């Protein structure tokens, strides 16, 4: 008969090994669960998806459940590193591998892709998001009325574009979007759908948003990785000497910070108005919109480094009108001073910390072009 405490101790020691000390699927530290059919250690969040794959994966707690000797031996013989070498052997370089804070649909489809569909065990596996052309229907939010309507989207590596169409496709695409400045990030809470995806791009140096979703989780993640595939192909063409390691952060990215702040005008005598702000640390842009689901930005602030005259600090503005929020933030730029108000002290601390993160980064060549383009808009 198995020794419960002895086997628990063995499992806990296995989970502390360098190859097992992070979740096999999202990388979260100190996993407390294990799949005794796959031989991997996973976190609580990822264990939920594994429970939904009973034909592939069976889950137990390494602390609370009873383990037979043969199952413990199986875990000793396998582990996260062995599973990674098999199930992730041919993951495309552009394919997004979820992090602990990522949304559920990304984690779920990554787990299903690895263990249920075994998409990455063979080099020649057919993957729809690598075909060069990806098309299908997505539910898109209307720019004015806010309703989501089905629209056909076509993503093509041949001309590096994303097109979408209204009902009558014979009239041509409603919009043709270059992937040059395209970004995609999952925003389920903002969009109000578990599979909500925000697609951002530039037109005449102004940022525009598309908010879309698909009812099928696999399909929306396929769209996301198809966008990443074409972005990777574009970047390889635009920067042929750059390594994949250098290009990966530029394929798509999550925004460093988002949320509402109040903003006043350049004279700081105008009434404060509530705006939705997005801090894009990669492009060094602080964008603001009327609401969080606006299609077009109202304005943008370039956030340069300290040695170029940029800084951020907390403040208590005086002589201003209309501000209901009292936690102030001042952003100094070479051209002007921006004053923002946060609702809570915690919000202010987070904004100041995020802005300082961007200010602490040195400029790269692309940043000078971005800064010049923003200044020309004024």
Descriptive notes:
With 378 residues, the protein is an alpha+beta fold. It has 3 domains: 1-116, Arf GTPase activating protein (Annexin V, domain 1, Orthogonal Bundle); 128-250, Pleckstrin-homology domain (PH domain)/Phosphotyrosine-binding domain (PTB) (PH-domain like); 257-376, PH-domain like (Roll), CATH 2.30.29. The protein contains 10 helices and 17 strands. It has helices at 4-16, 44-51, 69-77, 80-87, 104-116, 188-191, 217-238, 244-251, 345-359, 365-376; strands at 33-35, 40-42, 59-61, 133-141, 148-156, 161-165, 175-178, 183-186, 197-203, 206-213, 257-263, 273-280, 285-289, 299-302, 311-315, 327-332, 337-342. The strands form 3 sheets. The chain has a 7-stranded antiparallel beta sheet with strand order 7-6-5-4-10-9-8, with helices on one face. Strands 14-13-12-11-17-16-15 form a 7-stranded antiparallel beta sheet, sandwiched between helices. Strand 16 (327-332) and strand 17 form a beta hairpin. It is globular and about 75 Å long. The model has no long low-confidence stretch (mean pLDDT 93). Pfam families: ArfGap, PH. Residues 8-128 form the Arf-GAP domain.
Brief summary of the model shown:
The chain contains 10 helices and 17 strands. It has helices at residues 4-16, 44-51, 69-77, 80-87, 104-116, 188-191, 217-238, 244-251, 345-359, 365-376, and strands spanning 33-35, 40-42, 59-61, 133-141, 148-156, 161-165, 175-178, 183-186, 197-203, 206-213, 257-263, 273-280, 285-289, 299-302, 311-315, 327-332, 337-342. The longest helix is centred in the middle third of the chain and has 22 residues, at 217-238.
